[in-house]
Amino acid sequence: MRTPTKPSITVAAIVLFAAGASMAAAIGDAPSSSDAAIRAAKAPENPPATKPAAPPDDKMLQRIPGSTQAYSLAQTKSLFVAPDWWPQDHPPMPQIVAYGRGEAWACGHCHLPTGLGRPEDAAVAGLPLAYIMEQFRAFRDGERDSPIMHEELSRVSDVDLKLAAEYFSKLHFTPWTRVIEAARVPRTHQENFTLAVTDGAGTEPIGNRVIIVPANLERTMLGDARSGYIAHVPPGSIERGAAIAAKGTGAASACESCHGTRLQGQVMPGIGIVPPLAGRMPNYIVRELIRFREGKRTNSGAAPMRTEVAHLSMKDMIDVAAYAASRKP
Ligand code: HEC
Ligand code: HEC
């Protein structure tokens, strides 16, 4: 059986990720520790005649403390499996969410069975059903630019799409990102699809960036939908963002005027469905603001956002994203 793993879409996802983290210069400043490791490995002129270390056994069963489930590494990496470590945390998943169908990948592999999502994709839990269906149409018709979702939508049947949208829209969204203001952040590197703390590399100034890392990298890599993230945001950003959300910036309107006073999302006459922002990952919020600005979300529903972002600086975007992410829905 074909079991494609995430690396087969690495390029597309890194482009996506890089777009999302275009303010995260840390990606370019790869720490030199890996160079040192390569140099050290090359050092012996005549390599000793030992067998290379065995690659990790992909079939070995992995476990997470407290969970009764077990998955092989190969399963946790397969796009046709959504590892379900905590089945008691959500209703039964439709097949398309849990395993995909035919060529279509399992939605829950990327967005997780709880729909809480990861920094490199999106939280889909609790989004209004009609908003999800409209985004599917936009991804499919190229009005919302995402190579991954475009490809997924070319593989999924309409029946499965509806089932997946209904499943995710009914889930309760519980934020799983801790937002912390910090002048200095741990040095990070890219690991699989996420930024991860580089052990022993110390800290660096945050600058005008959002640095989001798994709270526990190992568990995140196994697809543990209870092990969340830590988002570092610049000092003072939450308070500045609160002011932008409530009053706007002068030219830009108050986010709350459309997204609701708790940024909980709502339906507005003349505008339509305005999605929730409270507690969603700050890097996702910034990434989408950049995309509205770059003309990568051009469906008619996105028109108010395209006007809005024309009046926001990068700093405004980071501040308001820090605030929104720190709110409880
Ligand atoms: C290989 C990973 C992957 C798979 C599988 C996947 N998605 Fe996505 N999804 C993404 C990424 C990445 C984004 C973010 C796109 C962007 O930033 O515009 C996304 C975005 C979305 C959004 C938009 C959320 C928002 O707030 O606007 C929805 C809805 C969604 N996906 C639903 C699904 C459903 C339903 C499935 C299964 C049929 C699915 N996805 C399968 C990676 C994936
Ligand atoms: C005039 C109304 C209006 C205002 C003001 C507004 N928004 Fe929006 N926003 C919308 C609508 C409508 C959408 C849905 C776009 C779509 O359908 O693609 C949206 C979508 C978004 C999204 C994408 C959410 C997702 O799940 O992908 C983000 C992020 C966002 N807005 C952030 C903001 C921020 C931050 C502000 C304030 C600086 C703001 N918005 C102000 C109407 C508004």
Overall description:
With 329 residues, the chain is of the alpha+beta class. The chain has 3 domains: 68-170, Cytochrome Bc1 Complex, Chain D, domain 2 (Orthogonal Bundle), CATH 1.10.760; 177-233, no CATH class; 237-326, Orthogonal Bundle (Cytochrome Bc1 Complex, Chain D, domain 2), CATH 1.10.760.10. 37% of the residues lie in helices and 12% in strands. It has a 3-stranded mixed sheet with strand order 3-9-8, covered by helices on one side. The chain has a two-stranded antiparallel sheet with strand order 1-2. The chain has a two-stranded antiparallel ribbon with strand order 4-7. Helix 10 crosses helix 14 (314-326) and helix 12 (282-293) packs antiparallel against helix 14. The longest helix has 13 residues, at 158-170. It is globular, with a radius of gyration of 21 Å. The site of one heme C has 25 residues, from helix 5, helix 6, helix 7 and helix 8.
